[in-house]
Structure prediction request, 90 residues.
Amino acid sequence: MGEVVNLRLQRKRAARRVAETLASEQRLLHGLPKTLRQTARREAETAAERLEGHRLDAGVGDDRPGVRRDGVSPDENVDVTTRFPQDPPR
Prediction:
């Protein structure tokens, strides 16, 4: 007499074999070789370093609290009509 076989387990094993062959094909098609991954990583690091190197230092007035970049203190009362007398008062 023959060997007793669990059909459910056989179906699962067959499905796993098919899934593994499909996965290996996908890895071949879509996977990147190690050298290309390393090259891409190095290029990204170089670009980040270049960007960081072009970053501007702190501007004038940045280290003094309460002073704007144009040098005018927010406490200073600036009248627009005195700065631009050619404009008629409103």
Summary: The two ends are 110 Å apart (CA to CA).
